[in-house]
Specification:
The structure is a single chain. The chain is about 50% helix and about 5% strand. It is of the alpha+beta class. The strands form 4 sheets. It has a 4-stranded mixed β-sheet, sandwiched between helices. It has a two-stranded antiparallel ribbon with strand order 4-5. α8 runs antiparallel to α9, α8 packs across α16 and α13 runs parallel beside α16. The model has no long low-confidence stretch (mean pLDDT about 95).
C-alpha cells in the first residue's frame, strides 16, 4: 500500500534557505550538486521545499517514476513555468503577448494550439533544408575567426573563446529567428540590436535561476534583481521587434525588385500563421537556445580534445563525407554520419545540462511507493543518472560507441529510454531539437575536418550548473591546421 505524501523525505524550509546563503553548504553550488547530495542523503525521491510563495518540488531519480509521470501527462502537459517571464508577459507587456504567452509560459489548451501550429515548422526535417548552405557559410566564418584569434606560436585561442562560440550559435539561430545572417561573428560584430540581444540572452538565464529556482522574495516585494529582469525582458522584446521589422522591410524590397525569396523559411511560415507568434518565437529561440547550444558545442570539442583516439575515429568518418576542408555539407551528405551523432549524444551524457525535466501531475500518482497528489510539481532528475554506473557502465569514460551497434553482434547496448532525456519526452519535448542537432553537427564536422583540437589544461570540472550549465574554466583550445 502506498505511503502518504507527508512521509516523503525532505529538508526543512529554513535548512533549504540556509543551504544557499553565503556560508551555506550549497552557496555558489549548482542545483545538480544539491540534488545529487540529496539523492545520497534521502534516496531516489525527496521534496525540494517551496519557500516565499513557491510550491514544493517532488524530485525523483527513478526511471520507473519518470516513465509513470510522462505516460500520465496527457495531451497538454503542464509544467511549472519560469514565473518571472510569465509575470512580465501577463502583467508588464500584455499589450504584446495578450493570450499568446509562448511555449515557455503557456499552459493547457493555449499551449496546445501554439505547439500544434509550430510542430510542422520545427519538427519536420524538410523545414531545415534551406538552412544547410547558410549554416555552412557561418561555420566557414567560424573557422576563419579561429585562425584570426589564435596565438601564432601556441595555436591556442584566448581565454574568452566561449564568447566566439556564443556568437557562432547566435548567428546560426538568427537564421531562423530573423531569416538572415546577423554577422556578429566577423562581418558586423557591433550590430547594436543583435549585440544587445546576444548579451541579454545570456543574462536572462542567470536571473531565472536567482529568482525562480533559488529562494527569492520577489513575489512579496520587487527585489533589485527582479527589477533588472523586467527591464532586460522589455529591452530584448523591443530589440526583437526592431530586428524583425528590418527583416520584413528587406524582404519586401527584394520582392518589389523581383528577387527570389525563400518563402519556405521558418520565419516566413510563422509569419503566415501569426505575426505575434513569430515575434515571441524569435525571442524564445535565442533565450532558450544560445547558451544551451554553445555549452553543447564546447562539451563536444572538450570531449574530443581529451580523447584524441575518438577524435581520430570521427575524422575518418568525416574524410569520407568531406574529402576537402571546404566540402559542402547538405542534406544528402549529412545522412551518413553515425559516429558524429554518437559523439554528440555521448557529450550530452558526459556533461549534462541541468537537472532534467519539470512536470505537473494532472492526476494522483504513486511514485517510489508514495502517494503524490494531483497538481504536484515533479522534477524528473534523469540527468543525474548519466553518471551512474548502474545505468551507464564505465560512466566516467567518454564512449560514443555505447550508442552504436556492436560490429560483431549487430546489437546496441540496452539503455533505459527514461534515463536519457536531454531534450525531454512526449508532446512537450524541446521543439528546437532538430535545429540544435543540425547546428552542432555542422559545427563539429567543420572544426574537426579543419583542425586537430587539443586542450592542455585541467578539465576535471569544466562547467558549473546553476539551473543550466555554464563554463567554469576558459576554453583555451589549441587548433592545429590539418594539411589534408
Amino acid at each position: 500500500e502506498a505511503r502518504p505524501y507527508s512521509e516523503i523525505p525532505r529538508p526543512g524550509k529554513l535548512e533549504f534557505i540556509r543551504a544557499f546563503l553565503p556560508g551555506g553548504e550549497f552557496h555558489n553550488a549548482s542545483i545538480v550538486d544539491y540534488a545529487t547530495a540529496m539523492r545520497k542523503r534521502y534516496g531516489d525521491i525527496f521534496i525540494m521545499p517551496g519557500v516565499f510563495g513557491k510550491r514544493d518540488w517532488v524530485t525523483t531519480f527513478s526511471p520507473q517514476d519518470i516513465a509513470m509521470v510522462f505516460r500520465n501527462e496527457g495531451i497538454w502537459p503542464k509544467r511549472e513555468t519560469f514565473n518571472t517571464i510569465t509575470y512580465f508577459r501577463t502583467h508588464i507587456r500584455p499589450d504584446v503577448y495578450g493570450d499568446m504567452l509562448g511555449l515557455v509560459s503557456a499552459q493547457s489548451e493555449a499551449w496546445g494550439k501554439m505547439r500544434t501550429a509550430l510542430n510542422p515548422i520545427f519538427m519536420q526535417p524538410k523545414g531545415l533544408k534551406s538552412y544547410y548552405e547558410p549554416l555552412s557559410e557561418i561555420n566557414n566564418e567560424f573557422i576563419e575567426r579561429i585562425k584570426e584569434v589564435r596565438d601564432a606560436k601556441t595555436l591556442e585561442v584566448p581565454e574568452n573563446f566561449s564568447e566566439e562560440m556564443n556568437r557562432l550559435i547566435f548567428d546560426s539561430l538568427s537564421l531562423v529567428a530573423f531569416d538572415r545572417q546577423m554577422g556578429l561573428l566577423r562581418k558586423n560584430r557591433d550590430n547594436p540590436d543583435a549585440l544587445k540581444l546576444f548579451q541579454q540572452s545570456r543574462e536572462a538565464l542567470r536571473y531565472v535561476f536567482e529568482l525562480d529556482v533559488k529562494p527569492s522574495a520577489w513575489k512579496v516585494f520587487p527585489t533589485p534583481t527582479f527589477k533588472k529582469m523586467m527591464r532586460l525582458l522589455d529591452e530584448s522584446l523591443t530589440a526583437t521587434q526592431r530586428l524583425l521589422k528590418e527583416t520584413q522591410d528587406m524582404l519586401e524590397k527584394r520582392r518589389l525588385a523581383g528577387e527570389a525569396i525563400n518563402s519556405k523559411s521558418m520565419l516566413e511560415r510563422m509569419m503566415e500563421v501569426d505575426t505575434k507568434m513569430a515575434v515571441i518565437m524569435s525571442l524564445d529561440i535565442l533565450f532558450a537556445g544560445v547558451d544551451a547550444t554553445t555549452n553543447l558545442l564546447s562539451a563536444v570539442l572538450l570531449c574530443l580534445a581529451k580523447n584524441p583516439e575518438k577524435q581520430a575515429k570521427l575524422r575518418e568518418e568525416l574524410l569520407r563525407i568531406m574529402p576537402t576542408k571546404d566540402s559542402a555539407l547538405n542534406e544528402e551528405s549529412m545522412k551518413d554520419m553515425p559516429y558524429l551523432r554518437a559523439v554528440i549524444k555521448e557529450a550530452l551524457r558526459y556533461y549534462p545540462n541541468g537537472l532534467g525535466n519539470l512536470r505537473e501531475c494532472p492526476t494522483d500518482v504513486i511514485l517510489s511507493g508514495y502517494n503524490v497528489p494531483k497538481n504536484s510539481t515533479v522534477v524528473l532528475g534523469s540527468n543525474v543518472l548519466f553518471q551512474d554506473n548502474d545505468y551507464y557502465p564505465q560512466a566516467e569514460k567518454f564512449l560514443p560507441e555505447r550508442w552504436l551497434r556492436d560490429p560483431e553482434t549487430g546489437k546496441k547496448s540496452p539503455v533505459n529510454a527514461f534515463t536519457y532525456l536531454p531534450f525531454g519526452f512526449g508532446p512537450r519535448m524541446c521543439i528546437g531539437k532538430r535545429l540544435v542537432d543540425l547546428e552542432v553537427e555542422t559545427s563539429v564536422a567543420k572544426v574537426i575536418r579543419n583542425f586537430q583540437v587539443e586542450f592542455n589544461y585541467d578539465a576535471s570540472r569544466p562547467y558549473k550548473t546553476f539551473f543550466f550549465m555554464e563554463p567554469a574554466i576558459p576554453f583555451r583550445f589549441k587548433f592545429t591546421d590539418l594539411d589534408y
